[in-house]
Amino acid sequence: MDIIISNASDQPIYEQIARQIQSQIVRGDLEEGALLPSIRRLAKDLQVSVITTSRAYEELARDGFINMVAGKGCYVAAQNEALLQERRLKMVEDSLAKGVETARNMGMPLDELITLVEVLYREE
Amino acid sequence: MQDVLKVEGLTKQYEDFMLDGISFSLPPGYIMGFIGANGAGKTTTIKLIMNLIKKDAGTIEVMGMDNIREERSVKDKIGFVYDNAGFYEELSMEQMKNIISRYYTRWDETAYKRYLKRLGLKKNKKIGDLSKGMRMKYALAMALSHHAELLLMDEPTSGLDPVIRAELLGVLQEVIEEGDCSVFFSTHITSDLDKVADYVVMIHDGEMIFNDAKDRLLEHYRLVKGTQGHLSNLGGQRLIGTDRLPHGFSALVADGRAAAKAAGEGLVLERPTLEDMMLYHVRDAAGRLV
Q: At A38, phi and psi to the nearest 5?
């Protein structure tokens, strides 16, 4: 499991951790039932406070990505394929929304924006 | 869960200084940083916890036990690390250990050997020949080898280089990993706490300034910078340590979002470090005295 923390980022550290684990689950890099490091172990490994990693895991559990079993550990929760698909869609939607807003603020017409998306999509 | 350390209304009166009603508590398995400028009262507080000086009011409990009535049991559960830790310069680390270990009911020779190795200490070296960093590591090894439930440290990082400070912080994170030992340490080097501390207590001039989870502090507090116009819009907000500059101002606020709303467009908000928080609070306190 790769987690890279930026101290310069404006995003709080717990959120950086939660987002990175979340996207590894959504992408399928972390599979259902996989055991995650304990809250305390992760804090030590990332050199952050225990409260920070607790918060990250709490958010992940709340959103249904992991199960926290008292005394046992934290596991990647079973992901409903339809739900997973919806989450993937949501991640794309969130990123797109920012771009759309910027375009609108600059007065860029929709067809120009669509062309731009097409260009970007085909670029790779 | 029972707090490892619980301090309530702790007060100590000196002729020219007063520690005034300090309260905080530390649950098991966490790191608490205790910050404040030199002379704020950090060492006084720690001496009171260790019952090295007499308090005037308040209570101190370690694992639910009164630190004076049950002094022996309390000290058995504390690993104490402080400058000039009372070691004899002429003795080797091994000889000194043989003297000190007898005072602890739960001395663990295996743990001691493991820490010496882990920290790169040679047991037969004379204490007088140890560098400052080595001396701190030795004090740490001694403090961690009797199954302490509270590691209490007074300025353990002062005068140490960043490499050794990072090593120490790594050890502290190992200490709390199992979840039953807590760490309380005072420091004026706040960058040590930016990463690993769970809770931060700040005192200034003998008074509590704040006491909260570090993440919560850093989430809500913001440094704000803006124009005179912003400053007058912020009239209703509590500004901490306002610094008026020829072309604007800067201040610390406890609620960044509310400040941004009140000030209007263009106010610059930055995440403060603990050092910023300390500086602005100290400046604020100085301003109030004038």
A: -65, 160
